[in-house]
Design brief:
Elements: H1 7-30, H2 37-50, E1 54-55, E2 72-76, E3 79-81, E4 95-104, E5 107-116, H3 122-140, H4 148-160, E6 165-166, E7 172-174, E8 181-185, E9 202-205, E10 208-210, E11 216-218, E12 225-227, E13 233-235, E14 238-241, E15 248-249, H5 254-260
Antiparallel strand pairs: 1-4, 2-4, 3-12, 4-5, 6-10, 7-8, 7-9, 9-14, 10-13, 11-12, 14-15
Helix pairs in contact: 1-2, 1-5, 3-4
The protein binds magnesium ion (MG) (2 copies).
One magnesium ion (MG) binds at residues 99, 101, 110, 112, 237.
């Protein structure tokens, strides 16, 4: 069941999603060698609660029945998504995907950004750039009258053209009163297939792209997903509202990139 949102509901979704963008910017301020992902989680949870919202990820029951123990997912290097914050210090050259969800005024925000820790190699930078470009190419297709497969195809083509792996087991999704609504939004697929996109549909588009092959493993903690070959993975996510002519991006990287300044990729 796909719920179409009214303009008023989209406005509430935007507020929740902007808070996610601002929370990720607070996290961005702290990312450097030596900081732990648990420290990032503490700051994020505090900021979300100080702004009258609730971190949607905390306590969320996963497929393995284990509640997610933190407010953000922090996926380092070969981890793809759903990494659990811990006490290991980040190191120069690492990358960390931070995924954040909020619940505010009845609506969910969901957005993710992959950060560099200090200087990273040019190969890794290229992975990050390509993944982010793929996200925006997908968003360009998120317009009324297109098909869902148009988004999927745009993401997949851009990444596979550079021989990156496109993770298939995890996908984007509808966003609304619930964090995960219909439809599923795969990062692979065929043009002109899938559900017709309509104004008022709100979806999270979130390419999860690997430097090696696309295969993944679930770690023993029941949550963290990592590449099977150990190669790095990137993840960027925006929540968008399907519009006529163009999509409206409800989340925002602006606050993050103001913090990153000239280091933004
Ligand atoms: Mg997310
Ligand atoms: Mg999501």
């Amino acid at each position: 069941m796909i719920y179409l949102k009214t303009d008023d509901e989209i406005e509430l979704l935007r507020q929740s999603n902007l808070l996610v963008g601002k929370t990720l910017a607070e996290v961005a301020k702290l990312i450097r060698p030596g900081v732990t992902t648990r420290q990032l989680d503490t700051i994020a949870e505090q900021y979300i609660r100080d702004n009258g919202a609730v971190p949607t990820f905390k306590g969320f029951l996963g497929p393995s029945g284990i509640p997610f123990p933190a407010s953000i997912c922090t996926s380092v290097n070969g981890q793809v998504v759903h990494g659990i914050p811990n006490d290991n210090p980040l190191e120069e050259g690492d990358i960390v995907s931070v995924d954040c969800g909020t619940f505010m005024n009845g609506f969910c925000g969901d957005s993710a950004y992959t950060f560099c820790v200090g200087e990273v190699s040019s190969e890794v930078l290229q992975l990050l750039r390509t993944t982010k470009e793929a996200l925006y190419l997908g968003i360009e297709k998120a317009v009324h009258g297109n098909r869902l497969g148009d988004i999927s195809y745009a993401v997949e083509q851009h990444c596979e053209a550079q021989s990156y792996g496109v993770v298939r087991e995890f996908v984007g999704h509808g966003v609304g009163k619930n964090m995960h609504e219909d439809p599923a939004v795969p990062n692979y697929g065929r043009r002109g297939t899938g559900v017709m996109l309509k104004k008022g549909m709100c979806i999270a588009i979130e390419p999860m792209i690997t430097m090696g092959d696309r295969h993944i493993l679930l770690e023993p903690d029941g949550w963290s997903v990592r590449t099977r070959d150990g190669k790095y993975a990137a993840h960027y996510e925006h929540t968008v509202a399907i519009g006529k002519g163009e999509a409206e991006i409800l989340s925002s990287f602006r606050y993050i990139e103001e913090v990153l300044g000239e280091n933004a990729i």
